[in-house]
């Protein structure tokens, strides 16, 4: 195909780590630029999402998960935004158009046209399509059903999902929004930039004690990215009829001694019974109706300035393994994206 380079770079797993992955567990390799077949698109990736759940896939994934585990030699994958450079067959996106797909972590990807979504101009910046607000919005409107005046607690409130969840909870009418994070510096930014009223700092006083001070009258909604100690604290702080919605398990995924595939936690189930707490897991992947609704709300909130999309951009695919290591280490606020 004229005008294209001969090779494309991609990131592959070279070894299953004993603990948290480091850049040495990956390699950036060159491969021939792939050629699309009938019904396929050749896409030049402009951005891809770096997400902590890759730790679970590197550890072998878990039964029932929507994505398979990764083995040494496999190319990593994840949400990506790219420009179509070639299309085989009629119909579907055409060269020059932007699409979203799931073959990130490479410069060029061949993707079935049916597996791509045409982006259009609904959002002012294409990278905003990598925002993880769809999960936060779906969990808060469908899972926990936030009500006006609710006190909402968001664990892992500085990450790609949590940085959106706090803002969305406020827009849905929450009266008080509390988050948690791992450092005072991130806590300060969460209050000043993301609309949190108070932020708990893991590793300082026990989370349960901090939450009791931040929400002396208890919590109505728990939006859980973490599990572990934070789930136990939320049970203790729950009001009667509190609603818990679980969207992540970072306590297991970021455990240095584990594989990232389990997240065990022990809590007092008597409190669930007495307080009549409800708890459910939520995944936007299984909620087909949420995408269009979220995109419409997100676009409107961005235009009015009611929501910001915090993200960190890392340039160069050769820096993607470092970006993953920094994400797993909790260095950044918001969504981490690589521009290959």
UniProtKB/TrEMBL annotation:
Signal sequence segment: none
Keyword Iron-sulfur: no
Keywords in alphabetical order: Oxidoreductase
Enoyl reductase (ER) domain mapped to chain residues: 19-338
CDD domains hit by this protein: PGDH (cd05288)
The keyword Oxidoreductase is assigned to this record: yes
A UniProt-annotated Pfam family: ADH_N_2
Protein name in UniProt: NADP-dependent oxidoreductase
Native species: Acrocarpospora corrugata
Organism lineage: Bacteria, Bacillati, Actinomycetota, Actinomycetes, Streptosporangiales
